[in-house]
Amino acid sequence: MEERIKRQLLKAQASQEAHESGATVNNSNSSKVKDDRWKMRQKRKRRHLQSSLEKHLTSSGLRPHTDFDAVIPSMADVEDDASERLLKEIERGTDDIDALGAKDIVKELCKQACDASRHLQNLANHLGTLVSDQYFGKANGVARISLEVNDPGSESDSQSGGDLSYSMVYSRKTKNDGGKKAKPFVVKINVHHYEKLRDMFHAIHDTTACTRPLHVSPAMTLGKNPNRYSPAANIFHHLIFCLLLRYASLSGAQQLLDLRGGGMQGAIHSEVFDCIEKQDGDQDITECFASPLNVYTSRYFSIFHNDLDWHFGSCGDFFSVPMGFFRKGGVHEANPPFSPGLMLQMVEKMEEHLSFADSMSSKGHNCALSFIVVVPSCSSKGPDQNIIQKFAGASYRSMLKSPFFSKHIILNAREHGYVEGSQHLRPTRFKESQYNTSIVILQSADAKNREVESKCFMGLDFEQSAREAFASRHQIELEKRRENNPGGVTDNDKVDTGLVPLEFNKEKRKIDDTPRKRGKKSKKKR
Fold this sequence. Notes:
globular; alpha+beta; four-stranded antiparallel sheet; six-stranded mixed sheet; 13 helices; 526 residues
C-alpha cells in the first residue's frame, strides 16, 4: 500500500515538474513574441519619423508638390522667392538692421515654419482625420462643438459692447488624463456672421440637388448639449470653427490676443458695391479677393476654396481661374491683401484675362470686361513714403502704365475708410484709413468703347458717388454707440478677443498658505 502511494506521489510530482517546465517554455516564447512586436512597433515609429523629417528638410530649390498645411509651408528656405522678397522688405524698411541681420531673421522664420508644419503633421497623424460620415450614427469618440449664447449683460461678455454673440466651445477627452476632458478651446462669433454663414451653408448643402441635404436649425433651438445636435449642425459648427482659426492664423497671432492683424481681411463698404452696380446696370459683381466672413456679393473668390470655403459658396482661387472664365465680361472688384508679390501677380493675371477678352472681341464676340482695383497709393516719393508704399510701387506703376488702364481716383487719408477685417469678432465694424488709397480701373477694348457712349465709370458722377461710398463711418459708429451706452464707449475701447487660446483660458487659483496639520489637508480656494 505504501509503495503504491509512493509511486502515485512520484508520478504526480513528475507531471507537475513537466507542466512547470512547459509553462516556462511557453512564457519565454510569449515574452519573446511580445518583445518582437514591441521592436517592430519601435521600428515603424522610427521609420515614420525619418520619413517625416525627410519630407520637411529645407534645401534650396527642393519643395514638395503640395504643402501639408494651407497656411504654413511644409518647407521654407532662405533662397525661396517669398523669403527673398521678405529679405528685401526688411533691408529697405528698417535702417537699424543690416543684410546679415535680416538674413538671420528670415532663416529663423523658415526654421520655425518647418518645425510648426512637422508638429501639425505629427498631431494630425496622432488624432486622425475627421470625416462627415462619422457624425451620422453613433459617432463614438468624435469631439463635438457646443454652441453657447453670450448674454450681453453678463460679466463674461461685458467687453463685447452689449452685442449678442455666440461662443463655440471645443473640448475632447484625452487618453493621458484618464478620459478626463481637457480645458476647452473657445471661439466667439457675432450673431450676424453666424446667421450669414448659415445661409451660405444652406445655399450649397440644403438644396434639392443634394443627395443628402444638410439643414441647420436656428441657434436658439439647439441647446448646449452637442450630443443632441443634428449631424448637419455638428458639421456646420466644425466648419465655422476651422474657418475662424484658419483666417486668424493667416492674419497672424495678434488676432488671437488683441484683434490686431485684421487689416489683411479688411473689405470695402457695401455702399461701394451698390455704387458700382448702379453704374453697371445692376449686374452681378465678383469679388476677386474675399472670404466667407467679409464677402458682400453672391460671387467671390477666396484662398481656401479647395477644402473649406467652397462649403460657403466660394467660386475658387483667383489665381487658379482658367482663361475664359470672364468671357461674358462684366465688372469685377479686387481689394487684395497689401502684399507686394501678391499684388504684382494679381496685375499680371488681370492683364491675361483682359488680353483674352480682346482676342474674343477680335473674333466677333462682345466681351466688355472691367476690373476695379483698390490698392494703397504710391504716388508720393521721398523719406515720408511709408513701407507699404515702397513695396507696392511695382504693382502700382504697372497698372498705371498698363495698356488696359482707364481711370485713376485717389482717396485722401482719414477721409475714407474700410470695414474691419475682424468684424466677425468685434462689436464695431468700421475703421478709418491712415493712408491714401487708389481706385484703378482696368478695361478691355469693348469696355472702353462702351465708356465713350455711356460714361459709366469715366464720368464725374461715378467719382463723386465712389468718394461718398468710401467715406469713413468710424466716427458715426462710435457716436451711435455712445448714445446707446453713455460714457461706456471710447475710441480706444478694448474689445473681447473672441478667440481664447488654451493658455489664456486657465482659472487662477489661490492656495492657502496656512501650515498643515497632521491628518488634514490644506484647503484650496478658487
